[in-house]
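From the pipeline queue, job 12 of 40. The input is one protein chain; the requested action is below.

Action: predict structure.
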Amino acid sequence: MRREVYAIAKKNLFIFLSYKFHASLKIFTILVIIVTSFIAIPYFSIRFNLKDYRFFFISGIIFGNYVLPVLRYFSQLIEEEKKLGTLEALIVLPTNLIIIIISTYIWSFISISVISLPVLIFGLYLLKVKFYIQTFLAIISIFILSIILFSTIAIMLSGFIIAFEKGEFITNFVINILSLFGNIYLPIAFLPKILQKFSYYLPITYGVNAFRKILFGNYTTLDIVYDLIILSVFFLILWPLSIFILKFSLMNAKKKGSLSHY
């Protein structure tokens, strides 16, 4: 199993390296957005009486671009394999499903880190965050737990893609909801009360809150334990649910014979 996991992760790495320009352009685009925001948002903040909104917005960009892309990796994997007609071959054996999931976990973390680490480092430098070893360890803990959790959500979305065949719109819809109501770009306090309550049912809210506490709030690692516990609870609930949805979708797709075509 270890050899198969390594082989799948290696295959994905070669595919990623073949698109160096795409990855470089993505990093450059995010950096341009951060610099533009750093320059322009103070005027926006003064006009609308928003204190320290620049730090809020840029930290949201950093966190969102590290965590949200994982939602696309599983769906892209499923869609690519369906287009190639190889999805059915990948899941013939019961163990193959576990191998695919573990491999994609590993690959998604590596690829996201390659793209997002330069953005993270540049963003922290721009915001003049004092960097201590405790800060670094806390940020790594938040990102790892968040990526694991969102990989679970991505598995669930993959199940919907298999069920509805062309389900990319579902992934985009979920990402937009999380970005808009998850305390990423817009403070929860600015939302209507009913939507404020909705925001606290989104796992990304607790991840980005913990991230901002470490960066700007002079909190210690112990102070973010509550947020990490909430993220863990979300994972314990969503993991079995996502596996059930994926297996159920695969079972139905096998009966319909829709795995071998797109």
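Job complete. The two ends are 29 Å apart (CA to CA).
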